[in-house]
Specification:
Elements lengths: L11 E3 L6 E3 L4 H12 L10 H55 L4 H49 L4 H12 L11 H9 L10 H26 L4 H16 L13 H15 L1 H17 L1 H9 L3 H9 L18 H6 L3 H16 L6 H7 L4
Antiparallel strand pairs: 1-2
Length: 377
């Protein structure tokens, strides 16, 4: 590295006498960049056994902590410098004011002595600040040298190693046990895109299969959630349920890259399948509610008259309500809302929209009603 490495970034500040310019400050961007580089640092480059691996990992962690502490220290020092600079300027301004007043005003010896004492006090304060300033300057220069040394280490040793790869490899294993709703798509896609980075790791062949299995299941889960949030598509729902079936059987075939789900994953997949299975029934229940409202003689009379809005809404809510009653023993006393609408986001939104539209415009056919009744079940 050349000497330019020492000049990462700087700002200049006047010294106490307003003369020379000195570069003291610190670039947060450079610190963050250096932290990132050190976070990937592995030492030594190639570990030959488990003891060397453990030693290198501890060294990495130590370097990360050093750079973080260094960054925090310099931030604190910079804040202190800025505060002292402001205070010093205030004192210097006040001192100048006192000197001018002393020169232009005819005052008694006692007053002159009193003013001189104030001036002397301010000058003493300024000298104290100057000492603090110089001390902070030395500390900042020392810290800058430390960071330069660490930066040099990074340059000489490289920024990516087998040890860092091993750390990432082990961390990625934890993704296999996560529920699919907790997996981040970008994280999964990035892992798939960089699978080749882990080819030298033990058990890579099995790892590769698990990654692809996880990616497929995440994609399937997301498609199911999308289907539950959008208009009912009987063909699509059935296709998704057919794909969920092997996962729900929870069998394993490692040669084909098919693995058993853990309890949390299995319950999530099973619940998703149940929710999909209730989409059609829920559509039928919502259509039934709408038909009852439209066919009720009392409601039709109130709508035709178009006068008593409150009475019309009240009559409608007898069928819509907040909790339409259960009708079948196998529902275990669940209401239509609990069994269907709460299970399917699209139906839940449609049901709530229907109630609101009826309340707002009871004498008109609602927009959501047209959408729901258009489905042929």
């Amino acid at each position: 590295m050349n000497n330019d490495s020492m000049n990462n970034v700087f700002i200049t500040m006047n010294d106490m006498n307003g003369g020379n310019r000195i570069g003291l400050c610190w670039s947060r961007l450079r610190v963050m960049t250096l932290c990132f580089m050190l976070s990937m640092l592995a030492y030594p480059m190639y570990a030959q056994n488990s003891k060397e691996v453990e030693k290198a990992m501890k060294r990495n962690e130590s370097l990360k902590q050093q750079i973080q502490t260094l960054s925090d220290d310099n931030t604190s020092l910079l804040n202190k410098l800025n505060e002292n600079k402001k205070l010093l300027q205030q004192r210097k301004n006040r001192l100048q004011e006192l000197k001018i007043q002393n020169e232009r005003t005819n005052i008694s010896p006692e007053q002159i002595n009193e003013m001189q004492n104030k001036v002397d006090s301010l000058e003493k304060d300024n000298n104290t600040l100057k000492t603090q300033y110089d001390s902070l300057k030395k500390v900042m220069e020392k810290k800058a040298a430390e960071l330069y040394g660490l930066n040099l280490q990074v340059s000489e040793m490289g920024v990516y190693s087998d040890i860092e790869t091993k750390q990432q490899y082990e961390q990625n294993q934890a993704l296999f046990s996560k529920r699919f709703s907790e997996l981040d798509n970008q994280q999964v896609n990035n892992l798939v895109a960089h699978l080749a980075d882990f080819q030298k790791m033990d058990g890579y062949a099995e790892f590769e299969k698990k990654v692809k299995f996880m990616q497929q299941n995440k994609k399937l889960y997301d498609e199911c959630i999308s289907a539950l949030n959008n208009k009912y598509d009987a063909v699509k729902v059935q296709q998704l349920r057919d794909q969920l079936l092997p996962l729900r059987e929870n069998k394993e075939n490692k040669e084909k890259g098919f693995y058993k789900l853990n309890t949390a994953q299995f319950n999530e997949i099973d619940s998703t399948d149940i929710r999909l299975s209730r989409f059609k029934g829920g559509m039928g229940e919502l259509q039934d509610i709408m038909k009852k409202v439209n066919n009720d003689p009392e409601i039709n009379r109130l709508r035709t008259e178009g006068k008593n809005r409150n009475a019309c809404v009240e009559a409608m809510m007898k069928f819509v309500g907040n909790e339409p009653t259960a009708r079948k023993k196998e529902w275990k006393n669940q209401s239509v809302v609990e069994r269907y609408f709460n299970m399917v986001p699209y139906l839940d939104k449609a049901y709530k929209t229907y109630k609101k539209e009826l309340s707002d415009k009871p004498f008109q056919t609602t927009d959501i009603e047209k959408e729901i009744l258009a489905f042929e079940l």
